[in-house]
Amino acid sequence: MMYLNLRATMVGATVLAANIGIAVAIVLSLIIALDINPAVSLIVGALYMGIASGLGLNETVASIGEGFGELMQGIGIPIIFGIMIGMLLARCGGATQIATTLTDAVPSRYVPYALGLSGAIVAVPVFFDVAFLVLIPMVIALWQETEHSYPVVVGSLVIGAAGAHTFVPPTPNPLAAPELLEFGIGEMMVAGLVVGFPAVALSIAVYGRVVSRLWDSEEDIADIPFDEADEEWTDRPSFIASVLPIAAPIFLILLQTTTEAVTGEPNVYLDFLGSRIIALLVGLLVAIVVYVRSVGRDELSDAFSEATRPAGLVLTITGAGGAFGFVIQETEAADALVDLIGVSGDGIVIVLLAFLIGLVMRVSQGSGTVAGITAMTIMAGVETSVAGSAIALAALSGGMSIGHINDSGFWVVTELAGFEVTGGLKTYTLGEAILSVFGLVGAIGIAVLV
């Protein structure tokens, strides 16, 4: 970027950058110090950001509504269906059946790595939020069967799902990287696999040691959901039946993305079946069948009622986070930050710069997708001999780096895992931050060797 945009020129790039920090500080203070509801705190922070940055009173309010609505349009219904699938599996014993089977198959000390791998495999064809929504009931049940601490098992799932979502096509950002930076999709696939999966394993190892020193169960856990009595149902569904509600949406989404990647052309029927709403609806219908066969119909209505309570809370907070991030985008404060950084240098400096731009965009506006795409788009204008896959991995790592209160994924993890805000920071934020560092190391390695 050669010049500041109009709003940045009128208000001042430094002021816009400072407003991001102040808005985040306001939200954190309201939540942590005053114990204000996160959704209310996020809206207050969004109001400050818009008004202080010159967006205008009415435009700020309109942007809050638009940001909330846009995010809900994309993930609102999938969140509801995902929570219902998890609740049905938990109440009929399916989640525990899966957990017991996995526990018997995997040595206890390797459980976090198995969870990370499971999250990674599931997240390759789907978005992070869908992978977490579908797998978190299983992870909670598995935690009850092992000696590992709660933040370790949840954090391992976060790291695995985030790693595949960030590095491995056909998820959106790594799929867009070859086109933006003009290199082959095969190169991105190989680089993503070679860097992504080792980064996940190393991150889980480091994360487990770090979080054990920071965790405080009384302060960091609010109320763990999907918690069933050990033998509430004597007729648990089989392992295969328990897995089907999870496997069905994954299969449909994978079928759609793989077919389009191979043929290069969309298929209207597969696009329909592989959409997150329809795929998760199919999974929910399968979960209903599994539940009724195991428990009966009498308590089905109660199970749905129980699922709507956490769904409403997650939707409210997630939507407010989307509103906060959208207002920041509307003020163009993130663009002002990028303009202040500038673009210059070569060699490893280019890799570090791609990471930094992604990091700034992630911290300032919340969306990892927006952060990664923006960083790669900016770096596409830089002439360099560094491998495109190295620049892509660095930008994507920076775009994943520090997800916090303005990131919808943060609230999905925090609320569905039953954490306080501090618990979310010590799992979602910490886990992804560690993973981003290993991703950057891998990007530097490719830049040096290729």
Automatic annotation (TrEMBL):
Q: Output the InterPro entries linked to this UniProt entry.
A: Glcn_transporter
Q: Which UniProt keywords apply?
A: Membrane, Transmembrane, Transmembrane helix
Q: State any GO CC term.
A: plasma membrane
Q: What name goes with this protein? A: Gluconate transporter
Annotated Pfam families: GntP_permease
| MF-aspect GO terms | gluconate transmembrane transporter activity
Name the domain of life: Archaea
Query: Per the UniProt record, which residue ranges are transmembrane?
Result: 12-33, 39-58, 70-90, 110-143, 150-168, 188-207, 239-257, 277-295, 307-328, 340-361, 373-396, 428-449
Question: Where does this protein come from, organism-wise?
Answer: Natrialba asiatica (strain ATCC 700177 / DSM 12278 / JCM 9576 / FERM P-10747 / NBRC 102637 / 172P1)
